[in-house]
Amino acid sequence: MAFDLGNLLQQYLGGAAGNNGGRAVDDDFDQVAQNAPRSTVAQGVSEALRSDQTPPFPQMIGQLFGHSDANQRAGMLNQLISNVGPGLLSSIAGGALGNLFRGGETPAAITPEQAAQLTPEQVQQIAEDAERNNPSIVDRMGDFYAEHPTLVKTIGGAALAIVLGRMAEGMKH
Predict the structure, then answer these.
(1) Taking a C-beta distance cutoff of 8 angstroms, is the pair 65, 76 a contact?
(2) What top-level branch of life does the organism fall under (predicted)?
């Protein structure tokens, strides 16, 4: 029997399946992330990151950072710092990232070793500043995390239900 992505996602239209229990939502998300186009997963993740039914974007990014491995941390930080200017970057996170800018303009890529020196709280502050500077960072982070579906599951069942609901709406149109 073939996997029916549309039928599975239909359960999540209008947020109806949000109370099915965390395990069912986790399992459903696994199935969908393996079978849906990455762009569809990215749209769903972005929606969860900006939803008023989930914690604020910076808080969720800090949480995701806390659950990430060293390479994922570096990748997500590189996304974030591309949206924060050098002056701002040197003043946030205790100035921990200010030395990553050469000549005051172009950010160098953050390495996994450098990312390991930051706390989730510092990353939360960076995410807050990045979102204020460029609100489209939410979509860029959604796209980044669509490549890491196992990590997305750490945002919790309610947020996953939002991801799945948004994906269902997108496939309906």
Answers:
(1) yes
(2) Bacteria
How remote is the C-alpha of 129 from its chain's centroid?
A: 16
The pair of three-digit structure tokens given for residue 111, joined into one six-digit string? 């390495």
The whole-angstrom separation of Cα 168 and Cα 170 is 5
Do residues 114 and 74 touch, judged by C-beta distance below 8 A? yes
- Cα–chain-centroid distance for residue 121? 16
| Residue 171 DSSP SS3 | helix
CA distance 66 to 76: 12
pTM over 0.85: no
Handedness of CA 162, 164, 166, 172 (dihedral sign): negative
Q: Contact 43/142 with Cβ under 8 angstroms? A: yes
Residues 6+ apart with CB under 8 A from 157: 18, 21, 22, 25, 26
